[in-house]
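Appendix B. Raw example, untouched.
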Amino acid sequence: MNKTVIIAEAGVNHNGDIQLAKQLIDVAADAGVDYVKFQTFKADKLVSKEAKQADYQLKNLGGNSIENSQYNMLKKLELTESMHVELLKYAKQKGVKFLSTGFDEDSIDFLEQLGIDLYKIPSGEITNFPYLQHIARKRKPIVISTGMATLGEIEEALSVLKGEGVDLDKVTVLHCNTDYPTKYEDVNLNAMLTIQQAFKVNIGYSDHTLGIEVPVAAVALGAKVIEKHFTLDRDLPGPDHKASLEPDELKAMVSAIRNIEKAINGDGRKEPTSSELKNKDLARKSLHVKVNLEVGDEIGLSDLEVKRPGSGISSMYIPRVVGRKVVKPLQAGEILDWSHIQ
């Protein structure tokens, strides 16, 4: 069975607290995800001090926003190198793979030293030419989000990766909408299929809606990777908590995805399964004799009725039964069998 890779996006929901980050790993491991993902960056390299916060960040941070600056917000959310090492070790102990999105070349090199087994390109870096080249040269599987991107921009990014020798079979392109939370009417899940048709790549979905329905639907449509933000508590301060799943919701999403995988894993042939054959005769109907009939009587349509069980002659054969003669006495209510007629 093809298993969907589920990435639980802790992101910056640790609020810069290593203990909170470990609790997030606990939740991810308990939910049964494949990866727990953080973010690796230095605010000084990621953003200028003049960059304003996004509207959703302003809304979610409220009075906690300092000078409405992305820099001040992100500076508090950095994970040190030693924190990364500690979290990697902790995740391994808990049986879940550690992953992080690096936002610059130095961060990517550090993650390479940690030995991560794939790279995640966030939506904001899809038009970052040197960054794309740098990741491509690591020669590892790549997952790339496409929030805010056009089909043309996705094509250009894939061209950069391919130009550096990346086998596109090792690239998974995630449809995504970069709004927190994303309104259901803005999801446009069919765009995921458009990406697949256009580039013949593995597809997935990075979800920012409030519920679990859309990622589950994405799996039913063929997503091979699902990424979803989660938190310990949506009421915690921070930019992303409000658009994240709480622990029980994350667990429910994983369970639903695993069930959907089983449901779509068939070979596509329409035929009875072994599990339902036992119900076939009970649910279907067959021909029953409506009146007493003697040997030699010719069966008329009014002599028959259609009832459960379906262990006798199917009513689909009425044209072949009417007009035939009875070879043994039959009682009203008896199931008609081919051995009863000539």
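End of appendix B.
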